[in-house]
Amino acid sequence: MFAVPIWAHTYMTNVSIEGEKLEEGKCIVPPWSNENFPEKDVTSKNMLCRSESPQLNGGTFCDVNAGSKFVMHFHESGPTDRAISDSHKGPCLAYMAKAESNGDGNVWFKIYEDGYDASSDTWCVDTLIKNDGALEVTIPADISPGKYLLRGEIIALHEADRVYGEDKDAGAEFFPSCAMINVVGTGTANPGQYAIPGIYDKNDPGIFFNLWDGDTNYIIPGPAIYTPGTAPAGSVNTTKVGTGPVVSSPVVAPSLPVNSNSGGKSKACLSKRHKKCSSSSSSRKKKRSRSKKHQRT
Ligand SMILES: [Cu+2]
C-alpha cells in the first residue's frame, strides 16, 4: 500500500495563474512539515501559513496581475488526490499581506470568503470538492504592486460543536496555506490592518458552531472583505487604521524553533472521535443524513 497518512486533511499543492497550473509547490510557502494537519488553536503562530515563521527566503514569487483571477489548488495528500474529505464541511477564505512583513503585525486583509448557502445546503467545502480542490479568488485591482503572501484557508467544522480545548478533539480545524505572489499593476492602495493570529477567537460564532443542529445561519469568521477604494494610499505602516499597535518596518520575523511538539494535532485524527476524518462509507452515510438536518429549518 501507499504510505498515505490516514490523518490526511488538506493543503495547497499548486497554484494556477491565467489558466496555467504551475508545478507542485511552486510559489507556495511550505507547510511546517510537509503535512496537512489542521491547526486548531486560533492563537497559534501556525495560523499564519501553517508555519510559525514563513520561509520566504529562496522561495519564488509568481507574477500576478492586479485584478486578475488566481486559483489555489487544495488536495488531501498530493496534487492528484481528492480535495478533502466530504465530512469536512465549512467555509473557505483568503487573505493577503505584503510579504515584507513576513505576515507579522496588523498587515492582513481579507479578499475572499464563501460560507454556507442554505438554499442549496452547500458549504464552500462542497463546492471545493466539486471543483477538484480549485479555489478561485480575484486579486484586488487597486492594491499597490509588490510581493504579497496570499493566504488561502479552509475551515472544517465537524468538531466545532465544542470549543477548542474542551476536549482533545474539540474545535474547528483550520487549513491555511500561503501562496507567494508578486502583484503587477499600477494601484496605490495599501490595505492591511489585521493580525494573524488575531483575526479569530475560539468563541466566534463561525468557529464555535454546531454543524449538526440544523442551524442554517452561518456567520463567516474574520473581518469584512476589503472593498477596493477604501484603503489609504502610501506607506503600509504609517497610514493604516486598526485597533492594534502599528507595526513599523522592517519587521523581523521571529526565529522560533520548529515546533516538534505538535501535541494533539498529530493525534487528532488517530483518535476514535476523529473517525469523522475517515472516508468509510458508513461514516459518509452518517454525515449525509446528519447534514440533512440543515434542510429542516
Ligand atoms: Cu480533519
TrEMBL record:
The reaction(s) catalysed by this protein are: [(1->4)-beta-D-glucosyl]n+m + reduced acceptor + O2 = 4-dehydro-beta-D-glucosyl-[(1->4)-beta-D-glucosyl]n-1 + [(1->4)-beta-D-glucosyl]m + acceptor + H2O
Q: Kindly report, in one word, the top-level EC class recorded for this enzyme.
A: oxidoreductase
What name has this protein been given in UniProt?
AA9 family lytic polysaccharide monooxygenase
Per its database record, what is this protein's job? Lytic polysaccharide monooxygenase (LMPO) that depolymerizes crystalline and amorphous polysaccharides via the oxidation of scissile alpha- or beta-(1-4)-glycosidic bonds, yielding C1 and/or C4 oxidation products. Catalysis by LPMOs requires the reduction of the active-site copper from Cu(II) to Cu(I) by a reducing agent and H(2)O(2) or O(2) as a cosubstrate.
Among the entry's GO cellular component annotations, what is one? extracellular region
Organism classification: Eukaryota, Fungi, Fungi incertae sedis, Zoopagomycota, Kickxellomycotina
Q: Provide this UniProt record's keywords sorted from A to Z.
A: Carbohydrate metabolism, Cellulose degradation, Disulfide bond, Polysaccharide degradation, Secreted
Predominant localisation class: secreted
Skewed-composition ranges (Low complexity)? 250-262
Q: Where do the segments described as Disordered lie? A: 250-297
Q: What is its EC number?
A: 1.14.99.56
Compartments reported by the entry: Secreted
> One Pfam family this chain carries?
AA9
UniProt lists compositionally biased (Basic residues) regions at 270-297
